[in-house]
Amino acid sequence: MLTKAYIPYNGYYSSPFSRWQMSMANENAIVLAAQTARNWFLKRDMDPTEIDYLYYGNTISQPKMFYSHVWAAAMLVDNAKPIPALMVHQACTTSATCMHLCAINIESGTYETGYALMADRCSNGAHTVWANPMGPGGEVESENWLMDNFNNDPNAGFKMIQTAENVAKEAGITKEECDAATLRRYEQYSDSLADDRAFQKRYMFPAEVKVSRKKTKLVEEDEGVTPTTAEGLAKLKPVEPGGVISFGAQTHPADGNCGFIVTTRDKAKAMSKDPNIEIQIISYGFARVERGYMAAAPVPAAEMALREAGLKVEDMKAIKTHNPFIVNDINMARKMGIDVMEMNNYGCSLVYGHPQGPTAGRIIAEMLEELVMLGGGYGLWAGCAAGDSAAAMVFKVGA
Description:
Blueprint: E1 6-8, E2 12-14, E3 18-19, H1 29-43, E4 53-57, H2 68-76, E5 85-88, H3 94-108, E6 113-121, E7 127-130, E8 141-144, H4 147-150, H5 160-171, H6 175-191, H7 194-197, E9 207-210, E10 216-219, H8 230-235, E11 254-263, H9 265-271, E12 278-288, H10 298-309, E13 316-322, H11 326-336, H12 349-352, H13 359-373, E14 376-385, E15 389-398
Parallel strand pairs: 4-5, 4-6, 13-14
Antiparallel strand pairs: 1-12, 2-11, 3-11, 6-11, 7-8, 9-10, 12-15, 14-15
Helix pairs in contact: 1-2, 6-11
């Protein structure tokens, strides 16, 4: 259990998420994240040089990735201060792990203020080539950074969607259940668009992208969200033969970034948009399950986070998940006694997409805002990650 790590209220942002090959497709994700975070700091009249250490989370190779963490830190403060940094790659749980690394350093007194900056660009994924001089004719070995890894876990030998189908089969989940929960997720996301996107504007910050050499534009809203109806979902066939998950019941690759300040209680209060609202990081959980069952991993991770916090799932006022497949939510709800229709209010990665590195961060930002609107309380975030693993975190909002 953590006792000393806090997040200033509104000391976080997420950019909109753009479906791959849309407005963020040609941006270097490292540069776009650092520039967006810097613009956010300046808009908030906050000094980014207050940061003592930065964690840069990403999962998809970009030009100059070798220097990504220290380069991002330098761009964030415009070289006004030499901020040390570390690159973190833990697939879909990267955001949570970056925040936890900040938190445990605050806990130990290593530094006062950490910053977790996460970004990825699924668009125009890198194609990596390695020398293979002993191969037939010396032909190179190659890998499509994104699609080859979506479609083959070298340890389990499954596509990611097949791991969800394995869980669905074991749990007896039907396509009809998947469609009903998927439709609910779209309805919940639609709630975040009400009143001119009032909920999203509580945490979302625009990203400025290049249109041409001389012209830029602001990406202010999510791009590429698919309108969803019960009739439309019913017509879609499962992607895998004999399966239950259609293209409508899984996420889509996307581009985006997000950032979180993690600091001491006193500094969080001083940096907060509202010093009467207190956000504490309570605990972190992790898990790795049987090979080929990635969608089941959030359950033991969530149970660990709750156990570390000394809390029960019934104590949670808000529950959010990274759900690349709707099976994740249905399985978690069954195993933990949760109403699948009441978790993931206001949005989730199933609907608005999955840039990987920043995905969990955006979801956590939404959960914190939901807790503020509810007058405070505990919140649980959990999500799976490549390799049949998962992470979870418990937060407390006092409002």
